[in-house]
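Quick question, first post here. What does this chain look like in 3D?
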Amino acid sequence: MKLAEALLLRSEYQKKIENLQSRILANIKVQDGEKPLENPRELIGEAFDLSERLCALIRKINVRNNTAVLPAGQTVFEAITERDMLMKKRNLLAAVAAKAMEQDYRLTHAEVKMNVTVSVEEVQKQVDAFSQKFRELDAQIQGINWTTELE
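> Answer (accepted):
Ran it through. Tokens below.
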């Protein structure tokens, strides 16, 4: 199984566990004299079994992410960490740019006038640079994911 396939399976397991939780909660209480549509105890058991499989899969993914190496020499784990930080920086600067571009509406001349303290143009250039770095690194990670065996 390729690393990318394992990541897809991890996502599927997580969604199934969420679905099982919803089904469990929907069948916890029933009206007097009624039977639940599904047995909550069986669903809990199924959720626990799936959680164990998910845990084992995540362990394998983490081990592989710590050993698979990108062409630049960093591990997939290091690249994912860097990619996540690039996105956090990008999102912060995008929020700064959006706030700076908000229109201030004054109802009277007596109200305080607001001034923008950052260059929106420069901030937007940084947003674009972080976005490009993110895309490039993400493409490398995805490439490794589809060519690396999980083991």
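The chain has a mean pLDDT of 95.
The two ends are 7 Å apart (CA to CA).
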